[in-house]
Amino acid sequence: MQALTKYPSGGADVLMGSVVTRDAALHDAIQLCHMRLGYNVGGNDAELVLRGLGSIALRYAAQDASARALAAWLQTQPQFEAVFHPALADSPGHAAWKRDCTGAACLFSAVFKPAFTQQQINHFCDSLRLFKLGYSWAGPISLCVPYNIQAARSMPWPYQGGLVRFAVGLEAVADLQADMLQALRGL
């Protein structure tokens, strides 16, 4: 839901969405919670979303193209064991994405080779100048978040290296690539 709400606003400055259910009891519980807590959409939030709708197709397409280019480039870098982006043919779920989708948004993940420690991966993220650290996405500024995936998962994970999640903003691809390259050289 978050990506859907942030793309329309254009500035990653609105968190808005909806909850939909067919379960009458759940509907009643949600309605009671809404009544007690006063959850609603503010006028300024609606205004920000309406303002951003005019450029949503352009922003989405630009961020999708940039994310695809950077994910494909990271596949060629020797520090990485895997890159996950639905448009990459070897990514899990690619066949379903290709069948059902035309775009892939701005998100992708890369798994470092096991030779790199979590501390080195954190340093890589800290060394990025254009990518800021953050969990949000769909905004104009590129973000990244390092994960110690083994510590975060209870299910088996086939990779031993740490993972970095990237959300690509509206900066030039060449600038983002140069930023990643300088941070990789720092490893």
Give a description of the structure.
- Helix 1 crosses helix 3 and helix 6 crosses helix 8.
- The protein contains 8 helices and 5 strands, in the order H-H-H-H-E-H-E-H-E-E-H-E-H.
- The protein has 2 domains: 54 residues, no CATH class; 130 residues, Aspartate Aminotransferase, domain 1, CATH 3.90.1150.
- With 187 residues, the protein is an alpha+beta fold.
- The chain is globular, with a radius of gyration of 19 Å.
- A 5-stranded mixed sheet has the order 1-2-5-4-3, with helices on one face.
Q: What is the spatial order of strands in the main beta sheet?
A: 1-2-5-4-3
Helix/strand order: HHHHEHEHEEHEH
Query: CATH superfamily assignment of the largest domain?
Result: Aspartate Aminotransferase, domain 1
Whole-number total of structural domains: 2
Label the CATH architecture of the largest domain.
Alpha-Beta Complex
Helix vs. strand class: alpha+beta
* Strand content bin: 5-15%
General form: globular
Largest sheet: 5 strands, mixed
Radius of gyration: 19 Å
Summarize the structure.
The protein is an alpha+beta fold and 187 residues long.
Features:
Aspartate Aminotransferase, domain 1; globular; 5-stranded mixed β-sheet; 8 helices; alpha+beta; disordered N terminus; 187 residues; single chain; 5 strands; 2 domains
What is the secondary structure topology, with strand pairs?
Elements: H1 2-9, H2 24-37, H3 43-52, H4 56-75, E1 80-84, H5 94-100, E2 107-112, H6 118-127, E3 132-133, E4 143-147, H7 149-152, E5 163-167, H8 173-185
Parallel strand pairs: 3-4
Antiparallel strand pairs: 1-2, 2-5, 4-5
Helix pairs in contact: 1-3, 6-8
